[in-house]
Amino acid sequence: MKVTNGTNTKGIVLMLLSMATFAVADTLIKVAGSFLSPAQIMFFLITGGLILFSMIAVFQGETLKDPRAVTPVLLLRYCAEMTGLVGMVMALTYAPLSTVGAVTQASPIMVAVGAVLFLKETVSWRRWSSITLGFLGVVLVIQPGAESLNFAVAWAVLALVAFSVRDLVTRLTPPDISSASLATYTMVAALPFTISWVLFSGESFFPALINWVVVIFMVLLGSVAYLLLISSLRMGELSAVMPFRYSRIIFLLVLGVLVFDERPNVSMLIGATLIIVSGVYIMWREHTLKQRLKQEKVDA
Hints:
By secondary structure, the chain is mainly alpha-helical. The chain has twelve helices and no strands.
């Protein structure tokens, strides 16, 4: 598909809708933490996602019988995705919503570091400076030396690292495997762990005090947000669309204040700003370098 200003605009709108929907889903996960354990929340997210994504894959004509689904690269991706989900659910259950949002959105910064360490990509001093700035932002958000440090934020850091590994590994996955199929394989891989977690905890899969309205919307909105994200990335140019993923931090800050009466301090706000600035610069710099390489090939 030819990318124009119009398709970029649509891609940006879809990205904003995706991040807003993700933020509401994150809020519902935190609300669900009042009547469900993290293991039970994971069970509903994984089973609900499995049903929805497999239906979408079948609707798209996918067979879901690709032998590449069990290759080492994809197995590593499944583990990273599952670990990230556990960290995210635990963090949303026990840590402030706004803090979780700011920390986990530093993923592009971690991916940039991983690309240098494992994919041997060359990084200029400008990008190193931006990466350092982003990590400073994470430190300001976490505030490790503060008396009021919430150790549950460690779960958000785990989610950040795991999702960064997932994004990094995704670069190595076969591009012809559809997003719906990949999501379905991930849910299938995570289901045994999730079921075992609930059983090991001695909990019921369907507790008596469950609020089905919250659970259903939690699963639906999470899945819809994922589909909006994929549509956005496929419709517009990454350089135009990706910076708007940081709107999720703003949405979560607002929802944290409105729903949970959170009061982010100055350090938190400065840290979130640094993460946004650093991430946007890294994305812009990657786009600039790719365009330069393309031009050099054309000139050659």
